[in-house]
Amino acid sequence: MSQPLKELKQKLSELTSDEKAHLATYLLESLEPVESGDIEEAWRFEAEARLAEVESGKAKTFSADEVFSELDRHLP
Q1: Tens digit of pLDDT for each residue in 7-59?
Q2: CA separation, residue 8 to residues 19, 24, 28, 37, 52 (Å)
């Protein structure tokens, strides 16, 4: 990370939540629009990569019962 970016992050950490929200909105609105086709292609690539990981056994999968049991253990 560049030094100017580090300094900016330090200054931003001093802003109030409201100021950060306004800045975030400004930054998001200042971004150039992305073509929806690019987004769809990126998601398709991601989905195919994840499916390949599941099929190869590289990704660990969990049943819905396992997920909800784990959530129940951690939530009040």
Answers
A1: 999 999 999 999 999 999 999 989 887 777 788 899 999 999 999 999 999 99
A2: 14, 14, 17, 33, 40
- Report residue 2 as tokens: 């560049």
Cα separation, 41 vs 62, whole angstroms: 27
Q: How far apart are CA 62 and CA 54, in angstroms?
A: 11
Backbone angles phi, psi at 72, to 5 degrees: -60, -35
Which sequence spans correspond to the domains of the chain?
1-31, 35-76
* CA–CA dist 31, 41 (Å, integer): 20
